[in-house]
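Reproducibility note. Readers wishing to regenerate the assembly model reported in the main text can use the exact inputs given here. Chain order matters: entities are listed in the order in which they were concatenated for prediction.
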Amino acid sequence: MKTSRIVRLPGLVDVHVHLRVPGGEHKEDIRSGTAAALAGGITRVLAMPNTKPPLLDVAVWRQVQEQARREGLCEVDMYCGATAASVGNLPELGGQAVALKVYLDPTYGNLKVDGVGEVRRIALAWLREKVIAVHAEGESIRQALVLAEELRRPFHFCHVSRKDEIEWIAAAKAQGLPVTCEVTPHHLFLTQADARRLGALGDMRPRLAEQRDVDALWAHIDSTVDVLATDHAPHTLAEKADPLNPPPGVPGLESALPLMLTAVSEGRLSLERLTALMHDNPRRIFNLPEQPNTWVEVDLDENYSFPDHPLYTKCGWSPFEGMCMRGRVKRVTLRGREVARDGIVSHYSKS
Amino acid sequence: MNQVALPKLFDLEKMTRQPKIKNGFYQKDILSVDQFDKDTLSYIFTRSEEMAAMSEKVGRCDLLKGYIQACVFYEPSTRTSSSFIAAMERLGGGTIPITQGIQYSSVSKGESLVDTMLTLEKYADLIVLRHPEIGSAAQAAKYASVPIINAGDGAGEHPTQALLDIYTIRKELGQIDGLKIAMLGDLRNGRTVHSLTKLLMNYDVSLRYVSPDTLRLPLNMMNELINKGMDVRETDRIEDVIKDVDVLYVTRIQKERFTDMALYEEVKNYFEITPETLSQAKQKMIVMHPLPRVGEIHYKVDRDPRAAYFRQVQNGMYVRMALLAAVLGEA
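Running the prediction on these inputs yields the following structure tokens for the assembly.
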């Protein structure tokens, strides 16, 4: 007889999402991105500032935040960005943006800063207690850790992907540095071998790593890793098909919870830890308010081949297509209203 | 006073020093492996083969007779300096060996190195330079009017080592393209690994990097390899690669980089290549090492025909002969 254990989780938070507004609405817009979030059991997203134009000043930031509040099907909070030239805007942005994002290594967009000196200036202009999320890879992580020690400010390391990196962060935490970190589902479930198979559809920053890195991330999932975040970074298939320079990034909002539930069913993760990674810790680190009467019901026993529904993300694809999942999002309730059921988001029709 | 009319010493009309062959290297500094592409590599390797054939048959010739190199080594390297000196001697040229007692002073201060270069260029036709600071060779090249050959600038580059490495692979295995090449050891700090990696980007090879986590290949270099579409993988277990590699390039794990000596001991032994390790490898493959070794390769392995590291040393001389001759316009 088929078992079916329905479990209720709190509305999940994704602290690393690219909604592509403004300037990239052909990849994703606020409605499609937030619909994808709800379909995946996520009721609050934090959106990244590497848009066109980037969110570097209060006027642009406020306009986009207001648009997101108006159009979003779930709650949306906006990061702001910073470059050496925009440091002067940070005191004002600091009162409003959910957190600051700084890019130490190249990825999609033009927000990379040069060197620790610039990061220090930016960090000092930002509110002392508010999170500075950093895109840092390899040696940059070590440099940022040194800075975190010097400044004693809350640095959050986005999408940690390699064994040496997670071990550096573990050592820094052991020393009492105020640092936190997130990992992504793609770095937990895919390797360079998958990158070969997937081609551009398996390319993102940081890149997929090796099996030993994946193993190390899992080894730290109950300790060093604070947050599971998707780094949902949609690009259209046409853009990904560019033979010369396909943009890096993969969507992840709709696959994250199914993947983590699959890990729960395999005994690699407890449901309590999943809740900590996708709800408790994000709320604590980013100081996010509670969403009253908000929960996600999942069936822990349902097996299916992903995706179980037409994808809501505008880009329309997933690097996890065809993967066998165990654990399905059944129903999402946001502030007392049912907003998604069996992969169908209420009151949403694709344009 | 009456001037006695002397017969002229030199018949200058008949004497010239025109380069015989003006290739892309004539009077050029050799500072970085970035200067080489597939064609220039092929040129140097063909010349190296000629040098090898000549040396094996007659030992020396007069190709560079009348030329003088200055070998300036601010840090000791018996191996590299004697290789350059032997290369020049076998081609009939001479050497000003400055391999002992020269005081290292910071390149950032500058004067000492520059003054030394400006002095030696008056004596020598080219200068071979080893210096502990990154960028020192490039700085010397900026001031010296004779060509500079970089024989190692700190953690920067050591281009002639990388050239002889590739030449050895080609000579031993007949080709470069299509090979699976594993590099093992301290991939984070090892400049030979970095230079060899850069050169191998010119070829269609599979690269495997084996190291403990703390000594992985720098991420920017790994990203560059993936960007180029190279077949590249990393692991911390030699077992993952030993069965099907064509080249096992072993490097020294530098003790001085470790603060935790227990970790060093663990890592050191982890990577020792023994006859048992090689028993899992293909019959047609080679083991290389830039030398000196400190326990990464067991002495018993030396007797294995696949151990190529001493042949590699000999190849180094041939490649340096080819480079010296090319830079001086005689090859």
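We highlight two features of this model. The longest helix of chain A spans residues 271-286. The CA atoms of residues 154 and 178 of chain A lie 5 Å apart.
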